[in-house]
Amino acid sequence: MISISHKTKQFLVLLVKLLIVGGAFYFIYNQLANNDKLDWQQFVTVFKKNQSVFGIGFILLLSVLNRYFEILKWQNLASNIKKISISESAKQVLAALTAGVFTPNGVGEYAGKALYFDKSETKKVVFLNLICNGIQMVLTVIFGIFGLLYFNALYHVITTKTVGLLFGILIALLLFFFFLKKISFKGYSIEKLIHKINAIPKAIHQRNILLGCCRYLVFSHQYYFLFLAFDVDLPYLTLMGAVSSVYFLASSLPSFQFLEFAVKGSVALFFFGILGVNEWIIIFVSTLMWFLNVVIPVVIGSYFVLNFKSSLQRFSKEM
To answer: How far is the C-alpha of 114 from the C-alpha of 72, rounded, in Å?
Structure first.
């Protein structure tokens, strides 16, 4: 095995940290600077017209609550391994978000959280993070289906036959997984996964679902209030139906965290375009949601990545 000096190891770890943080900031800058659909002059005009200390504070509060509920979710699930404080959970969540910002569907987030635990707990941490993200996805699908059905009832985006076909496919997939749950592939099966999920105390699952619901309501309503701030006057249920539809369909598409606003923005253009909302408002609201809920947490998370020491110790031992 090749022996590497301690100073070289330190340099390599620092290089990895700088690459993660530098890459995150580059992608953020690139998306903001090179998006020709962002008309900053119009944004400034509307901002000056509707600026309110209370309004700005309220929108920022929703961003804080969004991440806070995610931090509480992770603290709750991580207690299945060991109890961690809210501050420690915040450090892990924000650092992992930074690590996963330019990986497909935030895969790097799983590795980022695992580095805060013993190597023997890696599989368990990855599994718990899967549960953490999984419940959010399930809630997004549930709210999204109801929102899409409501929106479709008003604007007939897809035909009744197509809706029936989609539900038929969904039921077929559920039956397919049910009958194949005992089939094992490389030691893994759906039945074993269900047993592992059931092994987690019910109280943890219940709290996870409750916090997931709170988080969904916070970020979906932040979307709603931002549209109100841009003078979009539409019925509450219609606007929320469109918002939940956007999150449902956008979350179903594979993407990178740093491209999240572009994916959601393109889906939002379709739904809110039907409602007659100006294109530049849709793009700006989607970009602001991304900036408030991804960019700012990534900036904070960058500090934790650069000051992370446990990875250096593990890296040194493995080499």
So the answer is: 17
